[in-house]
């Protein structure tokens, strides 16, 4: 007998003995006396006594449960089945009885009967683990209707992603389109884990059903609710992905009105998906409604300028509210002008330049100092920039500014190793020792001893 089952049986015997010992003198019932006797026996001996008493004594529930457990531990499925089915016949069978009956039938190879008992257990004692197991059994039995009804009986928000996908497939298979829409509407309107993916799926369904106006209305509802920024971004992405550009534009404009502080998240979605013209159009509308920008909004505007090369949005924002921007946001915005147009493009914004800005983005300070011919300042800002992460693009800008220091001690110090940035160190080495042409390296012959 397995150790775990032996422990359970011994515990059952002990409980029976403790409960019965106090009532033996008051109620000398044969079943009660038998329970007390069994508590003193080993499981194998207790099972032998129960087999001998079967038919002579009417077993109470405790005895029947013990008999079933002992029989199951002994591998006697038929005898265990009879005991647990007698217990099942009660008005309210326990979770253990139903689970055990399901296990007995599964062990006997009757998965359909096992599933029936497990469904009773699930209905009476709901459990996510049991629901998953039962769903797997229904799939093995090829009973999609039973699986569908099982999943529909649950609150959709407690289903796993796999169960939701499966239920969606079953509803589509059965042509229950209204139920499919109701399922994903409930999930999309919830805050359950993965709700953004459910929003996307509902919008895609509505667009594919020829109902873009309803998709726009649903997206607006989510944008005005909790986590509106994430919902707005996901909605615009889903609509663009289905080719519903007009609907996506309407959703973005609704965002400007319903979530003004978060609506900027829609703009990069258009730019990244190849709709730069739409992004620029919406950027102008958005800026017109935002006299003051948050750090996150400045970051979005800077990202758009960096990814598209279009500086018009930044120009408008800097002209109207640049002085209110923090140094980090201002430095990153001005860096776009350096990247695309050179240091001379900073002249119109020289009133916004400050040591705080240069501290945040030293490459802006180096470009400005170099344009003004201030070599000490150029050197100081280049050293500071070398201590920050630099993209390949910015490393090329750094090297071009270094050229402005040629012939000076600052240039020699930088070449001598004042820079720790690995990318810049390699570029500095390459600038001093040009790479040998491949053709010359291949054609050269080794020196001969003479």
Walk me through what this model shows.
- The chain is mainly alpha-helical.
- Among the domains are: 135 residues, Serine Threonine Protein Phosphatase 5, Tetratricopeptide repeat (Alpha Horseshoe), CATH 1.25.40; 63 residues, no CATH class; 71 residues, no CATH class.
- It is built from 27 helices and no strands.
- The longest helix is centred in the first third of the chain and has 19 residues.
- It starts with a helix and ends in a 7-residue tail after the last helix.
- The C terminus is likely disordered.
- This is Tetratricopeptide repeat protein.
Characteristics of this structure?
disordered C terminus; mainly alpha; Serine Threonine Protein Phosphatase 5, Tetratricopeptide repeat; 450 residues
> Which percent bin holds the helix content?
over 70%
Task: Provide the gyration radius in Å.
Answer: 38 Å
Q: Kindly state the mean pLDDT as a whole number?
A: 85
Q: How does the major sheet shape up?
A: none
- Distance between the terminal alpha carbons, to the nearest Å? 91 Å
CATH C-level name of the domain at 155-289: Mainly Alpha
The CATH topology name of the domain at 155-289 reads Serine Threonine Protein Phosphatase 5, Tetratricopeptide repeat
Q: What is the quaternary state of this protein?
A: single chain
Please summarize what this structure is.
This protein is mainly alpha-helical and 450 residues long. It has helices at residues 3-21, 30-38, 43-53, 61-73, 77-88, 95-107, 111-124, 128-141, 144-152, 161-173, 177-188, 195-208, 212-223, 228-241, 245-258, 266-272, 276-288, 295-308, 312-321, 327-341, 355-360, 362-372, 375-386, 392-403, 409-415, 422-432, 438-443.
